């Protein structure tokens, strides 16, 4: 398994961030590449909840919550989609930092398809691309939390 992560400090209280993040079926409110979400199954959030994230580029990824610590972190397993992984899990953590600020971390652990070519692709393309995307996601989460506005394609703020 390989890993990529991004951690940033943002000026939003952890409780507010968790309120947004834990609304699992509404990641499209702040994620800069998710256009809409389809809920799969009866659970909206918490352990075992499943969603399909439909991206602006017309691809989709099915995710299931496999780990949940209320108010702090959740992990999803990517179960279906057009991605170069044999297996992949993503985790988002929120920690209060005092004075209304928080530390947000996004981490992805993955095992690539395509043998040695996949391993090379992970180093050259996937890790840098995911680290950049994670920064955009954290910034968009902060923008949404601070303004109440929806985040559209490429992180553009839309009407509230």
CATH architecture: 2-Layer Sandwich
Cα Rg: 15 Å
Corresponding CATH superfamily = START domain
Question: Could you say which overall geometry the principal axes of the C-alpha atoms support?
Answer: globular
CATH-derived topology: Alpha-D-Glucose-1,6-Bisphosphate, Chain A, domain 4
Mean pLDDT: 95
Low-pLDDT sequence parts = none
Structural class: alpha+beta
What is the succession of H and E elements? EHEEEEEEH
Major sheet: arrangement of strands? 1-7-6-5-4-3-2
Classified by CATH, the class is Alpha Beta
Taken together, the total number of domains comes to: 1
Continuous helix count: 2
Biggest beta sheet summary = 7 strands, antiparallel
Structure report:
The chain has 160 residues and is of the alpha+beta class. The chain has one domain: Alpha-D-Glucose-1,6-Bisphosphate, Chain A, domain 4 (2-Layer Sandwich). The chain contains 2 helices and 7 strands; from the N terminus they run βαββββββα. It has a 7-stranded antiparallel sheet with strand order 1-7-6-5-4-3-2.
